[in-house]
Design a protein that fits this description.
Spore Coat Polysaccharide Biosynthesis Protein SpsA, Chain A; seven-stranded mixed β-sheet; globular; golgi apparatus; alpha/beta; galactosylgalactosylxylosylprotein 3-beta-glucuronosyltransferase activity; signal-anchor; transferase; 320 residues; Nucleotide-diphossugar_trans
């Protein structure tokens, strides 16, 4: 009899435990729903496409990433690659400048589909005919991106002047559309101090595996290890530096030029802004490579040419 009572008591306590677990589960489930009709944090995250998971560092200066671009078969592919990096870098504002008489639908569509409309601007500036590459001209024969970068600099200076000017610390970077960028690079740019030009290594450029600033024991930039035209005042690649915005405001004459020798575009703008020894080394004292000077291979479109002549393009009705 006593044993039967003990068994029933155990069953009673077991049922109480189960009911307690069910009650706790029910309450926690209800907390995930908003009785006022407001969405829960999880539903808001889903509605936002889960993007908040990628916004690891939402603080820091605005980085104006200037990208000259022009119509060609690989344009959308290359801009798509860049857009994915920029989406991961919440303090980057993308300044796209097309070499054209007007903005293209392709670029507008790309900005819209990538969700970057709110932190980008689509500009255009056509390169003068006498400075355009012709036919089979090698890409180094004439300066490229001069008109577009200067257009972007004008826009950035006006934007800064209208929104706080020198009180609002920002950074300007020239982000060509055929390079490869690590999202870590933009975290490094956020460290650039006022009145400074930040520098770091660039991979696969100038005939070397890496072109980089050379530092002394105190971390001061002494020069660069460039193998190609090392006599340049600033023998570095366009991807290897970024500029504190106050320097651009204080030096409105700093821009690019059609009149300089090949390879001197970087030196042309930097000579107005800084000297080598005052540049700010970044990327783990210039030991990390976070950007590569890559180029997309021109696609072989031999089978497309007869289709175009016959008015039967393979991309008819598609945006490739």
């Amino acid at each position: 009899m006593n044993q039967e009572i003990r068994i029933k008591t155990k069953h009673f306590y077991a049922v109480l435990v189960i009911l307690g677990f069910l009650l706790i589960y029910s309450l926690s489930s209800n907390n995930g729903c908003d009785s006022d009709g407001q969405s829960s944090p999880n539903s808001e995250f889903a509605a936002a496409g889960g993007r908040e998971a990628f916004l690891l560092n939402q603080k820091g200066p605005t980085i104006y990433a200037i990208t000259p671009t022009y119509a060609r078969p690989v344009q959308k592919a290359e801009l798509t690659r860049l857009s994915q990096v920029i989406r991961l870098s919440p303090n980057v504002f993308w300044v796209l400048v097309e070499d054209a008489d007007h903005g293209s639908e392709l670029v507008a569509n790309l900005l819209r589909r990538s969700g970057l409309e709110e932190r980008s601007v689509q500009l255009f500036a056509k390169t003068p005919t006498n400075f355009k590459l012709q036919g089979k001209d090698p890409n180094w024969l004439k300066p490229r991106g001069v008109e577009q970068r200067n257009k972007a600099l004008d826009w950035v200076r006006r934007e800064l002047a209208a929104n706080g000017g020198r009180e609002r610390h920002s950074v300007v970077y020239f982000m060509d559309d055929d390079n490869t960028y690590s999202s870590e690079l933009f975290g490094e740019m956020s460290k650039i101090e006022r009145n400074k030009v930040g520098v770091w290594p660039v991979g696969l450029v100038g005939g070397l595996m890496v072109e980089k600033p050379v530092l002394n024991r105190d971390g001061i930039v002494l020069g660069f290890n460039s193998a190609w035209r090392p006599e340049r005042p600033f023998p570095l690649d366009m991807a290897g530096f970024a500029i504190s915005s106050d320097l651009l405001l204080d030096n409105p004459q700093a821009q690019f030029s059609y009149e300089v020798e090949r390879g001197y575009q970087e030196s042309e703008i930097l000579r107005h802004l800084t000297i080598v020894h005052e540049m700010q080394p970044l990327a783990n004292k210039c030991t990390d490579v976070l950007v590569w000077h890559t180029r997309t291979e021109n696609p072989k479109l031999d089978a497309e040419k007869p289709l175009v002549k016959a008015g039967k393009r393979s991309d008819a009705g598609l945006e490739v």
